[in-house]
């Protein structure tokens, strides 16, 4: 079995999150894809909407999408939400299963600033999701020397190669994966709400209903 992890503040969750998770799951033939809402992000301001409400929106967003699940362990954990702690706990809970950490380009380029970042490769493979037309070579040029070294040592060229590795190599590879680029961001959605603009086409209907019913994001205070 192979389990994917796709984390974020999901503040709010939108179609870009859902579609990316589904595309990665299909491309890598993952058994499960866990969406992991961040409790206390160590690299950005605290979300202006509480964890219970973000969790409710995430549940509404993935309803009806088979294979997408929520793992709320970071919301339950006290202190900063370090990805390596999440991976380590899942690694201990799921012995013998492969973990695949899914990150976007911006997050990946700052991977070397994450807590115990090199230990991430002990517990999982890393998939860098990006829009078509990008290449790992262009990404690597923007990375630190330390991260460039990891890319050189761990980079594999295609999803088929990673799929073949999963049964034998449980962690340690870096794969770039093209996903459909959807021009949506949570910060843009929050701004649209501030401006009383339309958001219904940017996220699942259930998420829109929660936002409207609870009058969320009327004061944008950060990520």
CATH homology group: HUPs
Strand order of the largest sheet: 3-2-1-4-5-7-6
What is the CATH-assigned architecture? 3-Layer(aba) Sandwich
Strand residue content? 15-25%
What is the succession of H and E elements? EHEHEHHEHHEHHEHEHH
Number of strands: 7
Specify the structural class.
alpha/beta
The third-level CATH topology is: Rossmann fold
Distance between the termini: 34 Å
Helices, by number, come to 11
Radius of gyration: 17 Å
Gist of the model:
By secondary structure, the chain is α/β, with parallel strands linked by helices. Helix content is 40%, strand content 16%. The protein has one domain (2-213): Rossmann fold.
How would you describe this protein?
The chain is 40% helix and 16% strand. It has 223 residues and is an alpha/beta fold. The chain has one domain (2-213): Rossmann fold. Strands 3-2-1-4-5-7-6 form a seven-stranded parallel beta sheet, with helices on both faces. Helix 2 packs antiparallel against helix 11. The radius of gyration is 17 Å and the shape is globular.
